[in-house]
Amino acid sequence: MIQSDNSIPTISSSLSSNYDDNNGYYNIGSMILVAFCMGLSWIIVHRWGQRNKVGPKTWPLIGAALEQLMNYDNMHDWLVEYLSKSKTVVVPMPFTTYTYIAHPANVEHVLKTNFANYPKGEVYQSYMEVLLGNGIFNADGESWRKQRKTASFEFASKNLRDFSTVVFREYSLKLFNILSQASFEHRSVDMQELLMRMTLDSICKVGFGVEIGTLAPDLPENAFARAFHTANIIVTLRFIDPLWKLKKFFNVGSEALLSESIKIIDDFTYSVIRKRKAEIEEAKRSSNNIKMKHDILSRFIELGEDPEYNATEKSLRDIVLNFVIAGRDTTATTLSWAIYMIMTHESVTEKLYLELKAIEEERAKEENVDLIECDTEDPVSFNKRVSQFADLLTYDSLAKLYYLHAVVTETLRLYPAVPQDPKGILEDDVLPDGTKVKAGGMVTYVPYSMGRMEYNWGPDAADFKPERWLKDGFFQNASPFKFTAFQAGPRICLGKDSAYLQMKMALAILCRFYKFKLVPGHPIKYRMMTILSMAHGMKLTVSRCS
Questions:
Q1: Binding residue ranges
Q2: Which domains are assigned to the chain?
Q3: Cystine design at 244: which of 59, 238, 347, 457 (Cβ 3.0–4.6 Å)?
Q4: Which residue has the higher pLDDT, 50 or 385?
Q5: Contacts (Cβ under 8 Å, ≥6 apart) of 506
Q6: Within 10 A of 217 (CB to CB), how many other CB atoms are there?
Q7: How far apart are CA 393 and CA 511, in angstroms?
Q8: Contacts of 167 (CB under 8 A, 6+ apart)
Q9: What span, in angstroms and rounded, lies between the C-alpha atoms of 49 and 329?
Q10: Annotated binding-site members for heme
Q11: Rounded mean pLDDT, 499-503
Q12: Integer angstrom CA distances of residue 350 from 336, 403, 465, 510
């Protein structure tokens, strides 16, 4: 009996304990279920509120990051789809909000009317600082104004223009000779890579007074070009990678590769600066009557002797890299897309060829020279005729090539070198179409999308049509707030005329004597980076024409 009585509380206590534990489990489970239901309800209500919204659909906390990440490799065309339905598209992200604009009125407001409210901004600068530092494309305020003022003197200089014409002709002929060899050997070439080499050599010669030699006949490997390309891709990825600062802190993944690339870039850049400084110092020691070179770097080195300017090797490094990206990547990619457009549109090929033949005959008559017979099967006579044609191409004669100018411009309309350009927002504002933008966010005008909008260019906006730029045979400009390939307002590109000069020189020489054909099966698509380059290059074959 005693044992029986004693056992009753033991069993009872055990049952009570189990009940309490299970009750606790039930309470936790209920809390989890309630939280899940609340979260699901939040998501449903959030998504229901977007049922009639034009633009990417968002999720709580992460905004449109998921959709943007899924469309990253095709982002420019992803934006075209949304901007064709709405002239302004708002894309919330975890730490900021991007407002994409494609209508000229909104673009003019951001780039000119309320320019002071839309600087590069701290967010953009934090992404690009490792590559561009405080150079002209990444700077704001007084630093930007000083650099722009100095650079504007150089770009307005007749000496620089004449020097550039000679240099662009020289390197266009070097490229021609490489293609000539390939054509006689029936080899394909990666045209984009060759154009990158040509423009790198050219900008280093025109901008910094140094010979790089990447376009030598043996096409030597160039660590700087490779590292610059890699760095450009990685800093672009930062715009949608919320973990990039963490990866940078631990120096892992893409940020580790970026660090390695920046070291190669800096080693090259500082060597260019020191070499140029040494040449200037040597010139000063060897003569009392020094004639300074007219390159951009020399101008900034000379300016750096003024204590108020306080130029350091780091500031010169930033200047060099900003002009390299301006003079190399943008020009080379535009030339690549232009050649692709020309060779895929037979009527454009024919019209351009006839214009170039006509200018050749006109210039030969003006100079009273007999044109060398062009034998496409004889490398010697063929190359001599090409050199003769190149000598006839002057700054003034290139200006008469209206159809060529239209071809380049139409290429830039559809394939702008800078497909997106984000700006920071200092204070809350309202765009002309009524869109409200908040301080701390980003406004991005989108040249790639703008060129494809029917509300900007009409029903044939998607067509490659150089004739849209011509009236009675002469080239007609469009508003820079509609055709935004060179930006507009106070930050409009200083190198626009120089870029056209180089592109027209190269295309005139190449398209007068060559026809291009894409290697069968070679894919053509853009790579997501700050510059609209071709992801897989452009493999093509070259055939000669007389």
A1: 493
A2: 54-117+417-484 (3.30.43.20), 134-411+493-544 (1.10.630.10)
A3: 238
A4: 385
A5: 168, 172, 175, 195, 198, 335
A6: 9
A7: 13
A8: 202, 205, 206
A9: 43
A10: 493
A11: 97
A12: 19, 11, 14, 14
